[in-house]
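Q: Convert this sequence to structure tokens.
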Amino acid sequence: NLHFLGLQETMVEECEDSLLRKFDANQDYLWLWNPSKGKSGGILVGVKREFYDVGSFKQGDFMLQVNLWDKQNRTKWNLLVVYGAAQEENKLKFLSELSHFCSYSTEPLLIGGDFNLIRYANERNRNMGVHRYSGMFNTLIHLHELRELIMSGGMFTWSNNQDFPVLEKLDKIL
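A:
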């Protein structure tokens, strides 16, 4: 009984009603999506109508922001679902867009998704240091006064599926 959900890397350019009915046969959710670019990216967000009204939404290249009215708590807040750039040449553009969305959000903000970045060296199973944009990512989190929620379960959320895999924690909730 989820109140909202966000899926990243959907690889769907056009979200058909028939696809949404597979997730939501009773049509309890309002669905919004960012199309994929070829076989890369794509974000799908579902918000349960029983609990929330959607005031507005804003799309970026790497994220989808939904302005919500919580019917029970009578408060406004923003849900931001991200799928960070996997390609090195787009990581700075992703971080700039994320900072822009955070700067212009006037309500409380919950950010979740696949950031395609690690924050600390221990978020990787091999001692390879941090990513060149990790410091900028941590500065952005600090600047916008975000806090990372600790996830339970396994330490890593991604694998390169090799015999001796690289494992990393790329999915986060802030």
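The chain has three helices and ten strands.
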